[in-house]
Structures
1.
Amino acid sequence: MGFVRRNSLTLAFGALFLGTLIAQAFVGLADFNADQVAHHGDPITLWRYVRSSSFAVDVLENWQSEYLQFFLFILGTVWLIQRGSPESKEPGKGGRESEREQKIGEHAEPDSPKWARVGGLRTVIYSNSLLLLMGFIWLWAWAGQSIAGHVAYNDERFEHQQSAISYLAYLGTPDFWNRTVQNWQSEFLAVGSMAVLAVYLRQRGSPESKPVGAQHTDTGVEG
């Protein structure tokens, strides 16, 4: 039980992720087969559906937008400020901060991660490792969305007796950008709303909120 308690946040959201992914597979299959029947096609099995481009593009278009959100939020909060938000640094403290503040190199503590202590390229990489990984996952998922979307788009064109288009041509289609932009705008709205609403609203016990009695102008103070 000690392991579960210490990692309960990750385990809970991991379970929610798997549960909703499975649910998406079943409801996506039902929707896909309903469309097949409406167009006088044959229904397919769940196993075939989860290996299809239709399922892949629906999953990846959401993944890429989520990781883009994290990528931009991590990058933006280095320099950008929202006075009164626990998600922001205090006014006047924007920037990468000094090596002393970041506990890098000679300023590292004995139990600091090794790559924070060694200096050089390894410390540079480690200093930006979260942003680099989020950016890589975003680009990987976006590339996957574009490839799966291209296949699904051409499958639909075949059903309407239309010729296939190239991958590069697909990247310029409204279908690709509609799938992309509709997810981006929702992520940006969610992040912006959180940054502003956390100035004035509270959730007792949450580290994403200021203490209930904190002033609205307190910035960078988490519960």
2.
Amino acid sequence: MSEEHRETGTGWPQPAGPGRPSGPAGEPDPRPDAPDPDELSPLAPEAEPAAPVEREDVPAPAEEPGAVVSPRPEPEPEAEPGEPGPGSRPERVSVSRRLTSAGAMIAVLLALLGFTLVVQLKTTSTDPTLAATREEDLVRISSDLDSRERRLRQDIEALEDSQRQLRSGEQGRQAALEEATRRADELGILAGTLPAVGPGLEVEFRGPEKATSSTRILDAVQELRGAGAEAMQIQGADGTAVRIIASTYFVDGSGGGLVVDGRRLSGPYTILVIGDPATMRTALNIPGGVVSSVRDAGGNVTSEDREVVEVSQLHAPIKLDHARPVS
């Protein structure tokens, strides 16, 4: 194509000179968007060339013999994402980059949020079998767990008590042994199976058989017990002695004398008693008491304080046929 022609975008060459363009055969331009001939005049103001319109559905006119057809312009390559195109501005490129960075940050935050939720659900999740359990069964399971906890606490307390006993076992056994020994000694003295020694009184009864009868002697023993006597024994003129305990009995002997627990004693009679001397002496001398009744019957009662009174006579152990200790 010569330099006198310019490309119009439709394949129709146009002369560069003034005047109305004509077709190859001198016919008017058949294109509907052909420019007005007046606008092509040199006197008309220069207008911006119209953008070429591509119409795929309109077939290009047939080429006539002798016509020169200019090639169609190659389309400009599209700009890569992130690279400024031929007609774009630097500001738009920076805005798109900022939008892309914000979207990436949002995606990262959403991923972190989802990961956190998944971890929390896994942490707080329960047994899948419990999740499908009915409410009544859950209540029963909770009650069973509470009962088991109470039993375990009781077992712990019992084990702790056993531990304390084991730690203090030697001292506890020693203390228990000492207490048992003391109690056995006391019971032995009261039962008359052990000898005893301590402060007390020596009481002597003299007079006719009426004044020293079994009734008067028994009254004296009861008064001494009431005054706190802890151990006693009675002996006759010949030195025969009998230990006085709770089951001791007194009977007047036939032909005179006194029978104590089956043993005959002859007067005068001497009672050795361990206890508080002042209290026991006062009990014997109360008005209308033992001393007064013996004296009224013609007899005499004398008492002497002793710092050490020895009750050495023993009583045979009593065999119990019916009584049993309460366990």
3.
Amino acid sequence: MSGVPGESDPVTPGRPAGVAGESGPVTPGRLAVVLGEPAVPEGTWEAEAAFVSAAALRRRIPPAELAGRVRSLPGVAEVAVRPNGFLRIVVAVPGALLAEVEPLGLPDPGWPDFPRTWDNPGFVVRYGHARAVAARRWARELGVPMGHFRPESLDDPHDRAVLRVLAELPGRLVSRDPGWETYLVRLALAYHDAHEHAPATPIGDEPPGPVHGARVRLAQAVQDVLVGPDRL
């Protein structure tokens, strides 16, 4: 899958989470409904969560008109029209995309189980899945509150790095060349960093709070996507 709009085949959105006019933070699915195709995440998302889209050119809609439709979505922080007609869209709450992540059921690429080192992509991906499962289990045991998901809590750079990779899912799901093997490794590596530096469980005397519950939800999404031996 190309990371540049206009270089992939025209696509239609997959299962959207909602449509324009709904309340709550915007998600990639809701963007796709308005654009007519998934937008492509841009940059690292460390400072801001941005997407780019060539939908106005492909659909022959005046870019300013389509930009106005996107601006009407709640949770869109900024929409800019580039000189080439592409739209650049910044969303305020990137964590809202977790509401759309579902188990993919991707087949195991056939990576060997050994050696269990970071040079083996099979180990990287399966260990990432196992860590996501463990994070959810430990959080339950420690009483992390999970009743009310607050996506805005996922603002740590490590959380945002995982969300950046997950944001590629809508486009990859409709791509003729999704590149799943490379994608799974990238997602696993981002989650390994988050698991170590932005854990879903409290550290020391830290009380469990909304950020931990949000990271449990992030772990669930990672578990649903990564290849692993079990699904909880």
